[in-house]
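Supplementary notes for students who missed Thursday's class. We covered one full example, reproduced here. Read the sequence, then the structure, then the short commentary at the end.
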Amino acid sequence: MIFTAIATAQNVQKDVQKHELSIYGLGGYSSVGYTLDGNGSKSNSIGGGAGLGYTFNINPSLGIVTGVEMTMYSSEASYDRLSKEYTTGTGEDLLRFTYSVNNYKEAQSIRLFSIPLMAQYSLPLGGGSTRFFASGGFKLGFPVTAKADITPGTATTLGYYAHEDITYVNLPQHGFVNNAKLPDVSRDIDLGFSASLALETGVRFALTDKIGLYTGLYFDYGLNSIQKVNDRHLLEYDVANESSFRYSSVLNTVLTDKVNLLSIGLKLRISLRL
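Structure (token representation):
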């Protein structure tokens, strides 16, 4: 539809106000979609955003929409209890590290910068200046910030060295703790770009000859996984600093895969036709 509109742009009617600038806000349900391994649970929250838009009106009914947009997604992952083990190191330093965490919580927030490219179709309602509109196309988004605020809860860790045939326990100075309260931490989340299907529909009200108010619904569906790294562990043994641990967001660990973004809600747009 977009390519057809571009190809016929040379037939634009002279009386059409071809250029339209807009500013808008949006808000509603936002989901960082993923499945947690084990008995973990996930919840989503309300998200929102704002943007600047540009519409090239080919004729009174058809236009091409683009612009820039900033949106926020948030979710929370939690485990009442999680136990995992993995092997790290080489040779005589080969360590089988086992950890168990209780009451683990992680709040994730993602701020996404997007560029939409959509086709917009409209038609008059009731013979007046009010018009129904529907838009469809795609958005390409890039994470600006992605943070995980982690509350690890309590942990018990064990370390087994095969060449010694010894399991180390309850040695906090060496990273082996027993039901220890771990400090809260904040970590960056490694994410890639997002390609989304974008749909909108609603009503445009003419406030003046040039100023309009668009009200309606929007729906953005992530077509690809934005997960960039998924080979880390929630709690990792730190050889360089044995008395502490390395943490990673669940979105970058073996506990999740195929992280997709989804949002649906209300959108208000004020436009100026030139």
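Commentary. Confidence is low (pLDDT under 50) at residues 1-14. The two ends are 24 Å apart (CA to CA). If anything here is unclear, bring it to office hours.
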